[in-house]
Amino acid sequence: MAKSIAILGSGISGLSTAYYLIEKSIQNGVRIGKIYLLEQQSRVGGWLQSKPIPNTDGEHFELGPRTISLNSYAGINVLSLVNSIGLADQVRWVSKHSKSFKRRYVVIDGQLRLLPSSLSDLFIRRPPFKPFFYYLLNDLRQPPVKIDDPITDDISVDNFFRQRFGEDIARYLINPLCMGITGGDSRSLSMRSIFASLFQKEQTYGSIVKSMFKKEDIFRDLRHDHLVSRSIDEKWAVFSFRQGIETLPKRLSSLLAENYPTQVELILDTKVEGIEFPSSDKCVINVVHKQRGSVADKIKVDHCFSSIPAIHLGSLIEKDQLKSTLLSIKTVHMAVVCMKFDSEIIPSDMGFGFLVPASENSNILGVTFDSCIFPERQTKLTVMLGGYMFEKLFGHPDQVDHQRIIDISRQALKTYMKIDDEPSQVHVAIHSDCIPQYTVGHQRRLRKIEQEIQNLPLSLLGASYYGFSVPDTILNAKREAMNWLRHQI
Ligand SMILES: Cc1cc2nc3c(=O)[nH]c(=O)nc-3n(C[C@H](O)[C@H](O)[C@H](O)COP(=O)(O)OP(=O)(O)OC[C@H]3O[C@@H](n4cnc5c(N)ncnc54)[C@H](O)[C@@H]3O)c2cc1C
Questions:
Q1: Helix or strand or coil: residue 33?
Q2: What predicted TM-score, i.e. pTM, was given to this entire model?
Q3: Domains observed in the chain
Q4: Pocket, ligand 1, Cβ cutoff 6 A
Q5: Which tens digits make up the pLDDT trace of 80-112?
Q6: Where does the Amine oxidase domain start and stop, copy by copy (predicted)?
């Protein structure tokens, strides 16, 4: 009999799971019954949100992710998805060789310092760094980082880079990078989980530098896709869409609604409040329909795919062991301040943005130069704040004083970029529990979760487990969908 499925959450993970389930089931001749896509908000897309700017000709602010990186198999997989859902002509991209991609800065002693980005920089001294050649030699001289268990043993990101490249790189490069991409502290984050491929290469080849000379054609099975091969030939580094990154979830949602109206049921404004497993092949989802007078309902299905963050999913499940492991994957909050100015106040090739190391004791994590990444005539900047320091600096996310966040952001632009201009548009977004923290031991936690769910009709999606970028979550959705389908054949 055709199996029924519930997908919890209609962010990019939930939507791509629905898409891959349908597409791959047709290819593999598996019949699927009803798919319920349950979403607590009145929109799809989760963190992918492109907010229209009032009084402009279709301009937008990105409140969550702004670009999709193509530096991994997962990134290239997104391009192939984009092509197959008919969005190729909407793509806008940045070349690896463009100044706007290569020029990145860190703040050191209150000043913006340009990071090395070309071979000639290997021999140039840019304080506080020595010529980069020195760090590469250091890496070549070190033995591989010693670990006992090849599957679960871990080391902090900070410790790993300190051992391989030394204090300057760990402190001024890797620490702000971690704050910028995860909102977390490199001293507590897991090397094995945050930089999995780099860690693997170091263990295999004995050094990061040596691994750079080993060419692997990781995109082999996707090269036939013309958008993928174009992106490789033209050296695309990152991409988004002309109308903003939200184009992707919106397109997936409309495609599912148009092509599979009876099979896929998207139920918005519906909060999942509990999940029960009466047997090893049945699942009951307790929901509350917020727009229908908070009516409680039960949805019975054969299998559940959850993209709800682990820390929230843990509180919905009765099973004690699983609950406590899920609850141990903590998250951080972020504040995002998007600003638009009425003229070009920074050069359009100034770069990608800057990050701030913890040693600067700043109130901000970094700034992206949005109107340089995808060139525009008027300047747009986004200031990121919070992360693991959020509550200490700004209090509870529900009670944040927005004006204070704007004032801090403007002060940071003045201090680091000498920008005193008044923005014509400002938007503040406070994102609670938005980025899961893969702290040291994350892989051990994942193995426990895998054991605990192996006899349950439950698959786990989303940023809490196997990668927190958009590409990682889409690739994980594809793998989980295919894994489930394999068991149905
Ligand atoms: C500020 C910020 C910047 C980022 N920048 C980048 C970037 O530049 N590049 C990049 O690749 N990645 C970036 N990321 C990461 C990226 O946004 C996430 O990996 C991705 O959006 C995760 O998607 P998801 O569908 O797994 O989760 P989500 O987007 O969180 O979707 C989960 C969905 O589940 C719903 N939900 C939750 N609980 C319930 C419930 N109880 N009942 C019903 N529905 C529920 C939520 O409303 C949501 O719609 C960024 C993230 C943030 C927060």
A1: strand
A2: 0.96
A3: 3-47+246-329+440-488 (3.50.50.60), 49-242+331-436 (3.50.50.60)
A4: 8-14, 38-41, 46-48, 64-68, 271-272, 307-308, 312, 334, 336, 431, 434-435, 462-463, 468-471, 473
A5: 999 999 999 999 999 999 998 999 999 999 999
A6: 12-481
